[in-house]
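Fold Annotation — chain and its backbone
Encoding — discrete vocabulary of local shapes
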Amino acid sequence: MSSPPASRRLSGVEAAFAYTHALMHGTTQVTTHVTVSGDIGPERLRAGAARWAEELPLLALRIEERADGLWFTTGPGPLPDQIRHSALTVPDSPDDVLRRELNDVLATGGPLWRLHAVSDPAAGVTHLYFTRNHAISDAHSTGAVVRALLDALLGHTDGAHPHDVRRLPPNGDALTYRPPAPAGAPPPPATASPQPLPFAAHRPWARRKADFIPLTFGLTESRTLMSWCRNQGLTVNQFFSAALAESFAETTGCSEVSLYTAVSLRRRYAQSPSLPDVGCFINVLNVPLRLDRPDLVGHARACAGALARADADWRPDVREHAAIRRAVEQVAAARCAPGICITNIGIADPALGPHMDRVTGYRTVVNRTGANYGLVLHLGTLGGRFGAALAFGVPSTDPATARAVAKSLHDRVVGPGRA
């Protein structure tokens, strides 16, 4: 598959993210925080980032709204403000910087990414914050693009270029979708959808912001949970999905909730073998989850079965961009969220390759200013350790509720046998 032209119409998935970003004050804007040992000074940053941006055509893209919808075009760059360098100062923490990056919204019509390096001499590290519009990014492409960035900044220590990042992604709507095999178990009787989650408070956009609560787990805790999941016949994702739902129900007193999760479509197309390792190819599934089983294992298995059936039944819904825009406008005007959500970038180690010995932290968080979900658990694994962040919009979600859910979730992770 040759690279498509830089000027093309956005797919439905890309358009949904682009409209959400534009109409909901940066909601779905993504920031990945990578901590690297050693100092990356401003000159080295600018030289390496300039090479990176020149080598990746994706980073030259812009989004333009025309009469028939949204189109990718190209623009000059990188512009001076796209590559930033600063030093961490008291009382700031790296998470404080991440919060500001989440809330510093990329302008609609302008560059689709920004890179900020923050020197942290006291810790002997540099924090890299890579922020971008979700329309050009998914979990897989994040790993590939970050690897290319580290290659440019730190050097090709093994001489390998494992990812295809020098071509532009095609329009997913033009690809041939191949659904997974149908789920084996019969579906349970249909029930009414869970009630939406009313906002704790509603404010004008200027008084709303994105926030998150970090959750970190030690190597022993992570290994213990992985072993427990294997013994129970669960995947880690199934455990965290059920643990999030149970923690939310325990905190709020609800007995059922709609659970959303992102699913990669990269292996679902007839053309998948020739896709580049950049772009956004995902679908978001949702299932009603009733918290009426005696233990977390039961909830995890029920959730897994429901998601498998939803995944097998899903088909691409190709809509006109005007219809996508209207749907986003309705979400922007809402005073409730449809449910809670979990995303998992998976294990970061393979993408980082020879740079693993220098990467001491890796976390991706998404802006939820518009509270398109009540709470979102962003999960990832680095060096065998689970790292997570519970993201939410303020004041739509009460921070006290988020903190209580985070504590309950943490307790379930460190004591899975008691969950």
Q: What stands out?
A: Residues 296-313 form the longest helix (18 residues). The two ends are 48 Å apart (CA to CA). The chain has two domains: 8-172, 173-185+193-418. The domain at 173-185+193-418 is CATH 3.30.559.30 (Chloramphenicol Acetyltransferase).
